[in-house]
Amino acid sequence: MTTEEGPIAKDAYDKLADTYAQDVENSAYNAHLEFPGTTALIPDVEGKQILDAGCGNGRYTEWLLDQGGEVVAIDVSTEMLTRATERCGGRAEFHQANLGAPLDFATADEFDGIVSGLALDYVQNWHRPFTEFARLLKPGGFFVFSVIHPLDEYNIDGDMDYFEIEQRTKEWEPPVPYYRRPFSEVLSPLLETGFRVDAITEPQPTDAFKEQRPERFEKESKQPVFLCLRAVRRES
Ligand SMILES: C[S@@+](CC[C@H](N)C(=O)[O-])C[C@H]1O[C@@H](n2cnc3c(N)ncnc32)[C@H](O)[C@@H]1O
């Protein structure tokens, strides 16, 4: 098992919690590019046990509940968890947990599916969470996640090293640290921890995106921003 790592973005998300829904969740990028791309990969969750890993203020938790899923949701930020709890009331179970450490709140083979929207970008070594996800999923269970695309914010003419997992900063208020990684560091940890890749998409902006951010539509139709992936826990 790999070493535990501390959560680099907890303090930033604790501070962002008040403005997150307005400034990030409802932005054209999250609401009309990443969210439709990711939800399109999620199989039927009716009556299924689903883990929302890095639930934030409960955007995916609420959607999964509305689709009939029974949801356990985790996040490292106490403030984001408070917003998620308020949003979803008593409909889901919430735990504070760090994706870079053992997920002790759950037992093996407990979940039919795991969904993680834009949360893994804050974990450097994905072997840890993926090993835990493989343990928590039933054989054949699905794992759908979205992350920043490896080529988003990668400057091919600059001095960045494509092959490095490098810590960068989103210049929000407050600034949010995250990791950019190459494609091999997306796929290899999955394949090495007991998953097979089932579907992969690089979502395109929707009509609603065009309505909200017409000046960004053409650019984002030609360049990848997010990567969405569905993996399945191998049977053995
Ligand atoms: C961009 S938000 C996404 C929230 C939600 N999944 C969504 O799509 O709206 C990222 C979330 O990941 C959480 N997060 C960051 N690092 C984490 C870690 N190491 N363990 C668990 N959650 C983490 C943050 O607290 C934040 O709520």
TrEMBL record:
Gene Ontology biological-process entries: methylation
Organism: Natrialba asiatica (strain ATCC 700177 / DSM 12278 / JCM 9576 / FERM P-10747 / NBRC 102637 / 172P1)
GO molecular function terms attached to this record: S-adenosylmethionine-dependent methyltransferase activity
InterPro entries registered for this protein in UniProt: Methyltransf_11, SAM-dependent_MTases_sf
Keyword annotations: Methyltransferase, Transferase
Boundaries of every Methyltransferase type domain copy: 51-145
Pfam families reported in the protein's UniProt record: Methyltransf_11 (PF08241)
Keyword Cytoplasm belongs to the record: no
Protein name: Type 11 methyltransferase
UniProt KW Transferase keyword: yes
